[in-house]
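Entry 14. Structure prediction run on the chain below.
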Amino acid sequence: MFHNKKDTVYVVLAGIFITNALVAELIGGKLIDVGSAVMSIGILPWPVVFVTTDLINEYFGEKGVKKLSLITAGLIAYTFFVLFFAIKIPSSGISSVNSEQFKAVFGQSQLIIIGSIVAFLASQLIDVTIFHFVKKRTGNKMIWLRSTGSTIISQLFDSFIVLGIAFWLPGVMDFKTYLISGFTGYTVKLVIAILMTPMIYLGHFLIQKYISKDGK
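Output returned:
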């Protein structure tokens, strides 16, 4: 049972955070063309993760984000564990999705899974560290600086870690393609992060208005 409105806010933000992180991992194996470069379509749900990460940072601090990040990483690993066995079980003859089709969609390589989890944890740790470094120096002012700034730096690492482990190290991409794809994905994240900045202020306003009614 929730003790106050702030507890409710954390559960809602955590649910949104975990859902979008899991969806991003599940669809991340699909690469799309962006001009002459390639990019994982798993980038699409991350703007929501950006916003929820910063709001959790704002109201629940480093411990709140780190704890949720570890839980989410565990759930991502659990999801792929379940998918591993789901792939191994043969489909029925009347199934509209046969075993080969199911494996083609969900049978991501071990390196993609490892790369995704490592990149996720590293970027979240960097994000929360930078966020609170800036907040200690600006107080409650300049929300845009700590939110967008932490995202811009953390996602630079995220973009190259996952591509490096999943595609460059095993030789799927050469180094030039790795760099181009990494910077393409990062640029898309950068643009989205800047465009999503007003959502941070909107979320901050709505949460503040909601929890202020609690009288706590």
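Strands lie at 31-34, 37-40.
Filed with the rest of this week's runs.
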